[in-house]
Amino acid sequence: MRATAQRVLAWQSIDSGRLLLMAVAGLLIVIALARTVAVGVTDLNVAVAFGVFIASGELLRLALPGGREEAPIGMSAALAYALVLHIARSPGQPPLVGASAPQVVTVTAVAMAVGALPHVVAGRRAGLTGMLARLLSVAFVAFAFRPLTHHGILTSPWPVAFAAMAILVAAGWLIETVIVAVIRADDLRARYAVMVRDELRAQWRLGLAVGVSAIVIVFGAPVLGIAELAVFAPPLLVIQWAFRRYAGIRATYLQTIRALAQVTEVGGYVESGHSRRVSKLAVAVGRELGMPEPDLLDLEFAALMHDIGQLSLVEPIPGGATLLLGAQDARRIAQFGADVIRQTGQLDSVAEIVRCQWQPARGYGTTEPPLASRVIKAANAFDDMVHGSSDRDRVASALERLRAGAESDSGSWDEYDASVVAALATVTDRLPVSRLLARASRRRLKGARRRAGRPCASEPKASRARASRRAPAPPGRRSEATRPGGALKGARRRAGRGVCCPACRTPF
Predict the structure, then answer these.
(1) Dihedral of CA 279/64/431/255: which sign?
(2) Considering only Cβ atoms within 10 Å of each terminal Cβ, which end of the chain, N or C, has fewer?
(3) Domain for residue 20, yes or no?
(4) pLDDT at 234
C-alpha cells in the first residue's frame, strides 16, 4: 500500500508541462510505431546501425553545468538518420534510400529507450524529459524534411541543400531547447524568458557541433556508406570528452569554493549550515528576480563566501550574526573577504559582490551596490533572524523587519532593497525555509536513523538490515549521538521537520 501511495504521489507531483510533453511524445511514438509495423522496416541493416549509434550516444550522456544532460553523439546520429537521402552500397549496387519519417521516429525512440536502460538499472535517473525533447526535435526534422525531397530542393546544388538542412537542424535544436527551458522554468520557478535565454546561451556551442556533425554525416553517406558512422565516431567522442572535461572542471571549481566557505563554520565564526542556507536562499531570490544564469553562478559563489571576512576577527561575533554589527565593522569584514577572494585571480566579480554586501540598498552617493550584493544582504539578514527554522511566525516576523528596513521614511538610506525583500517573501511563501535544504536534511536524518538503529523506511532492505544489526552504543556514553533516540531528536531539531523524509513519510 505504501509503495502504491508513493507512486500516486509521484505522478501527482509532475507538473502540467512535463505531462503534456509525455502525452504528445507518447502519442507520436504510438502512431509512428503502428505505421512502421504496418508498412514494414526498410533497410533493416541501416536502421540497426543508426539505432546502435543512437543508443550508444544515450548511454554516454554528457552531464553539463546546471543539472543539464545532453546526448550529442546520439542526437547527431538521429538527425543524420532523419536527413539522409542516399547511402552508398557495394560497387555495382544501387544506393539505399533514406527511411520514412515514422520509421525514423520509431528507431530513435527504441534506441533511446535501450540506451537509457543501463542508467535505470544503475540507479540513475532515466532523463525522460530530455529524451522526449530530443525525440520531438528529431521528429520535426524528419517530417519537415520529406516534403522538401518531393520538391527537388535537395537535388539542387549542394549549397542550397546544405542551407536547407542547416535551417531544419537549427529549428529542431531550437524546439528542443525551448521545451527543456520551459520544463526547467517550471521546476526552478524561474521566468520563462530568462530560462530560454540561459538555455540558448548554454547550449548553442554543443548544438552547433551536433548540427554540423549530422550534416557532414549526411553528405558523406552517398560516398562512404554506412561505414561512415565508424569514421565519424572518434571525432564526436573527442568533442564529448572536451565538454565533459569542461563540466568536470566547473564542478570541481564549485566544490572547492564550497569547501573554502566551510572554513568559517569549522573555525566557529558562523553556525553550521549558515553559508549553505544563505546561498540556496540567495539563488532562489535571484532566480525570482530574473537574474541570468552567469549572474546566478556569481551570486552563489559570493553567497557561499560572504562571511569569509570574519576570519580577520580576533573574537567571533556571537552566533556569527553580522546583522548586529555597525557599518564600519561590516565594511571592514566585507573588504577583507573581498581581498581574500580577489587573490584567486579568477573571481573579481565575486569579490566585488562580497565587498559591496554591507552597503545599504541605495548605496552611498551615486554608487549603487550590485543586485547580487543586495540579494546577499537580505538573505544573510533573514537567516540571521530565522536560523533555518520553518516556524511561520518566526519567518513572518523576519520578513516584517526586512520590509521595515526597506521602507524608511527618508528613502535615501534604505537598508534593504524593496524588490529583493518582495522576492524573498515570495520564495519563502512558495517554498518553506526548511525545504531549501531538503536534500541535506534528508541525508542528516537518514544518517541519524542509521546511527540510532532505526533505518529509514525508504532505504533498500539490505541497508535497513545492516542498520538493524548495528552494535548498540557502549555503556556509559550518553551523548546525543548514543542516547536512544538522541540522534533522531537532534536531527529533527536541526532540520525543523517532523518526518524522516518525503520518501517514507515515517514520523519520529
Answers:
(1) negative
(2) N
(3) yes
(4) 83
- Per the CB < 8 A criterion, the answer to whether 343 and 324 are in contact is no
| Chain mean position to CA 178 | 15
Instruction: Indicate whether 4 belongs to any domain.
Output: no
Alpha-carbon gap, residue 171 to 477, rounded angstroms: 67
Secondary structure (DSSP) of 279-347: HHHHHHHHHHTT--HHHHHHHHHHHHTTTGGGGG-SSPPGGG-GGGS-HHHHHHHHHHHHHHHHTTSS-
Q: In 3-state terms, what secondary structure has residue 40? A: coil
> Which of 206, 224, 252 lies at the terminal end of a domain, its last residue?
252
Average pLDDT value over all residues in the chain = 78
9 within some domain: no
Q: How does 203-228 read in b/e, with b if 16+ C-beta sit within 10 Å?
A: beebbebbbebbbebbbbbeebbbeb
Which pLDDT belongs to residue 38?
Answer: 93
64 DSSP β-pair partners:
68
Reported as type and span, the H/E element at residue 36 is helix 16-39
- Expressed as residue numbers, the domain containing 382 is 262-431
For the ranges 7-16, 52-61, 130-139, 295-304, which has the lowest average pLDDT?
Answer: 7-16
Which of 442-459 are b and which e, b meaning 16 or more Cβ less than 10 Å from the residue's Cβ?
bebbbebbbbbbbbbebb
CATH number at residue 327: 1.10.3210.10
Burial of 38 (0-12, 13-18, 19+ CB in 10 A): exposed
Claim to verify: residue 79 and residue 169 sit in the same structural domain: yes
Higher pLDDT, 240 or 485: 240
Question: Does any domain span residue 6?
Answer: no
DSSP-assigned letters across all residues of 221-287: HHHHGGGHHHHHHHHHHHHHHHHHHHHHHHHHHHHHHHHHHTHHHHTTSS-TTHHHHHHHHHHHHHH
For CA atoms 259, 260, 265, 266, the dihedral sign is positive
Contact 153, 161 (CB under 8 A): yes
Closest CA to 467 of 480, 483, 456, 481: 456
For residue 453, is pLDDT > 80? Answer: no
Q: Tell me, yes or no, whether 267 and 416 share the same domain.
A: yes
Domain co-membership, 237 together with 356: no
Query: Is 358 in the same domain as 279?
Result: yes
User: In this structure, are residues 406 and 399 in contact, taking their beta carbons and an 8 Å threshold?
Assistant: no
